[in-house]
Amino acid sequence: MKKFVGMYRLATYLGVKILSCDKKKIVLKQGKLQLEIEIDTGIGHKLIAPENSKMSREIRERVVCGARFRFIKDGQILFERHSGNASFEWVG
User: Fold this and answer.
1) How deeply is 20 buried, as exposed, middle or buried, from its count of CB atoms within 10 A (0-12, 13-18, 19+)?
2) DSSP string, the chain
3) Where in the chain are the domains?
4) What's the confidence (pLDDT) of residue 45?
């Protein structure tokens, strides 16, 4: 693994694309850059949200969970770390 040096910006105005996104994993790609985030979602807490003027939509949220981050450039892993202090909210 190469040493991670510098700052990389992934943004829609720079052409980032969502390759996949579900409750467990998000993969973003922008040119030769790729960011993968794997989330240990567990069950999460149920939140009720509005939908068609009624509080009937369900959202799942987890304030503290584990996540693995992997940043790849030209097929080489530049950065790979696990954090136990990630958060997520799934509105699917």
Assistant:
1) exposed
2) -PPP-S-----GGGT-EEEEE-SSEEEEEETTEEEEEEEE--S-EEEEEEETTEEEEEEEEEEEEEEEEEEEETTEEEEEEEEEEEEEEE--
3) 12-90
4) 83
Residue 52: per-residue pLDDT:
92
Nearest to 68 by CA among 77, 57, 76, 80: 80
What single letter denotes the amino acid at residue 42?
A: G
- Euclidean distance between CA atoms 30 and 45, whole angstroms: 32
Give the tens place of pLDDT for each residue, 10-66. Answer: 999 999 999 999 888 999 999 999 999 998 877 778 889 898 999 998 888 888 889
For residue 60, CA distances in Å to 19, 45, 83, 85, 90 come to 22, 5, 20, 17, 5
